[in-house]
Amino acid sequence: MLHEGIVRMKLDPAIRDQVLSTVPSLRAFAISLCGNIDRADDLVQETLLRALTHIDSFQPGTNMPAWLFTILRNLFRSEYRKRRREVEDADGHYAETLKSQPEQSGRIEFEEFRQALAKLPPDQREALILVGASGFSYEDAASICGCAVGTIKSRVNRARTRLADLLAIDTADDFGPDHATRAVLASGGRT
Amino acid sequence: MGEGHKSDHMKNRKTNLEPVEPGAVKPESLNPEILRPTGRPATAHRPEARLGREAQARIGQQLRDMYARYVQEGVPPQIADLVRRLSEQE
To answer: Which architecture, in CATH terms, is A12-88?
Structure first.
């Protein structure tokens, strides 16, 4: 997969450091998108390989994280189309391989949230993560996803509403019979 | 919360209680009578402004917590190694 020997350039150390400093967030984005660490690492490696072998197409001074996230997002989407059924199976080996295990109380909440996120359509999931966790502006997220800013806003809103439903988080109009119980569970027993 | 908006909520809610799968709607049924006040078909999804501030904050926090946990993992050795090798080749 590494295609040894095709790279024939020396990378500016400043650019290399920009890339390296983006990797933890890029990888978090990949894990959040596909819910599987092994596949996320493959995505990150493929992204970095493409980026670093096409570094000429990056304009110094522009947004390095947005550039890398765009590449990873496009790779994920083309892979998703090929492996749709597999990806929709949200289970799979996953958080067990994380080094930092949440404490028991936070673990249920974490697990519930992760599973709910995996149930979102991919366009909503990526928009929510980019804006709500990766720290991109709506404009950057729109550019990463190749759509209009209004589309991103709408996807983020729909993602939040759907997550609230899935997690039985109390909304202004919640009439679920057991939402109070589930809200306690969802908060990991705090309050 | 603003009681003044309640009538709007009620209007929207009525359509939401009858969820229809987007694919199940035939084009000929897209007549003006089932358009919501926003001009969009009353078929697709729940109104976007429904979620309360507190629920949004909770979801935002859980999302950031999850992400922070992933970020904390740092850069796996094989990835750092890949970047190093790719950037040092001439």
So the answer is: Orthogonal Bundle (1.10)
